[in-house]
Every structure is written in C-alpha cells, then in structure tokens.
Specification:
Blueprint: E1 2-6, H1 8-11, H2 23-32, H3 38-52, E2 64-68, H4 71-88, H5 92-105, H6 110-122, H7 126-139, H8 144-156, H9 160-173, H10 178-194
Antiparallel strand pairs: 1-2
Helix pairs in contact: 4-5, 5-6, 6-7, 7-8, 8-9, 8-10, 9-10
Length: about 200
C-alpha cells in the first residue's frame, strides 16, 4: 500500500496555454507508474511537470511525500493479534510462536519483543527474557512497565546491583511509582541477605 501527498503547486501549475497540470493528470501518472519505485515515480512526476510547463519556471512551491507500507506489517500484525488471543486462551506456547513470527517479519515492531520477554519470564527462561526486554527497552526507553519486568528478570538471576540501578533510574523519572517501590524493597532485601 502506498500513500502520496502533494502540494497544489503541482496540480495547479499552468503551461503556456493556461492549462493546469491537474489532479487527473497526476493520478494518471501514478496509475501508469504504480509498479515503479517511489523514487522513480517522484522523478517521473517532476519530469512530466517540466515537460508540461515547457521548462518554464515553476510558479508555486511543489512537494511530494510518499509512504509505502511494508507488506510484512499486515502479516506481522495479524500474527501479533493472534498471539494476544492465544495469551487470553492461556496458550503461551502458541503465542510465543506467533510473536516470534511477528518479530521476524517486522523487526522494528517492539511490542512483539515485549510479549516474547513476558512469556520467557513466565516460563522461567530468564536469559532469553532479558535479551528480548533489552531489545524492547532500546526502542521504548520511557516504558516503565518494561523496566519493571527487566528488574524482575534481573532479580531472578540474582543480579541485584543491576536491578537496583534500573530501579533508581525509575525513581528519578517517576518517584511515586508504587510498583517500583515494591521492587526496590525486594532488591534491598535480597542485597541484605546476599551480604550476610
């Protein structure tokens, strides 16, 4: 799927006969060139506009913006939504497979990574959970709930100092975070026990 945005400087540009380039002409160019890359289509539009105006100066500003949706996004989002349904059905094994498919198809979609980390955490596969939650947090640095999960993962691995560091960073951003307060108590208690 593609979206093309343009300014009226393209469609209202006139030639020496006083005719406008027109929306109809622009749509025709888009239809004839739909198999080409976005860059080629942009070049074709500018070329056609220059030929139409007989290389006279363009009178108005012109801009073309185009967006192309990756074909994998739809499939990836479908897998993700099915994974969420599997979670509701308490079928974490199938959900994990679907979230992994999502992540493979759309690596830039962080929510799949968060979902994978959650499942690995529930399955007590803490090292795998850590890999995915770190990846997620690298894309969504302000997600405090993800940081809560990261702290829990670190606690399960007895990495208390790292957990405390993350908890302290949350405390700066969100001093009234009750979940973080509880996690920090757990961390400090674990640190105290480990130092005995």
């Amino acid at each position: 799927d593609r979206v093309f945005l343009y300014t009226d400087g393209i469609t209202e540009q006139k030639n020496s006969k006083g005719e406008e380039f027109s929306v109809k002409r622009l749509i025709s160019i888009l239809e004839k060139n739909k198999k080409k890359s976005m860059e080629e289509i942009h070049s074709t539009i500018i070329s056609e506009l220059n030929m139409f105006t007989e290389k006279e100066a363009i009178a108005d500003d012109i801009a073309i913006i185009s967006i192309e949706v990756n074909k994998n996004w739809k499939k990836g989002i479908d897998f993700y939504n099915k994974g969420l349904q599997k979670i509701k059905q308490k079928n974490n094994t199938e959900a994990l497979k679907l979230f992994k498919k999502t992540s493979a198809l759309v690596p830039g979609f962080p929510d799949a990574k968060h979902a994978i980390a959650n499942i690995y955490f529930k399955n007590k596969e803490y090292e795998d959970a850590e890999v995915f939650i770190k990846d997620y947090i690298s894309q969504r640095k302000k997600d405090i709930k993800a940081k809560h999960l990261f702290i829990k993962i670190l606690l399960k691995q007895n990495r208390f100092n790292e957990a405390l560091k993350i908890s302290n960073s949350i405390k700066i951003i969100s001093p009234d975070d009750k979940t973080n307060e509880g996690l920090q108590k757990s961390i400090l208690s674990a640190l105290k026990k480990s130092n005995k």
